[in-house]
Amino acid sequence: MSGESVPQSGRRGKESTGVREVAAVIGLSRWEFWPRRCTDHATSTGFSCSQNSTPIHRLSTPSICPSHPSAKMMFKPSSPLFSGLLWKIPWRISSPQKARQRKRLRAVDNVVDTVSAALQRNGVTAKAVDRWYREMPREQEMLPKDKYTIFDKKEKKYRKGIHKLPKWTRVSQRVNPPGF
């Protein structure tokens, strides 16, 4: 074997691409491979940089110093990357969403009417269907405020868009507290 070959790991027949092997291929010792604080560029954060003395700059890996030229490769803070998942829910519900909401309300009304008619044909009544007719308004009877917004005690005007409710397309939310 030549002196420049990558050393084998403890496993038989497989080469490892660990830190030691990469450092050996490049010609660095294992400890020269790790990032260090720099000493040339003094920054207000207390970090400094030495471009010429640290082998890490030859590897063009990000250094710890933010003023160093290789710092351009460092983490770029953006809302999703900096703080995790960012849900962008618009403040208003769009016109197509409103149309689909009205269509869903009418579809639920039709299903309840169909179930009620089938039960009446058989001479049976259901408490749930009777309660639905007593408590829930039909789509035509609802105000636009009730179709597209829901009560929320944490909001400034006690209303928020229905599209901010989790699973809002699967839940019937027709009744709000009186006066709100």
TrEMBL record:
Q: What is this protein called?
A: 54S ribosomal protein L31, mitochondrial
GO function terms (MF aspect): structural constituent of ribosome
Family matches, as Pfam families: L31
Please indicate which superkingdom the organism of origin belongs to: Eukaryota
Q: Which is a Gene Ontology cellular component entry for this protein? A: mitochondrial large ribosomal subunit
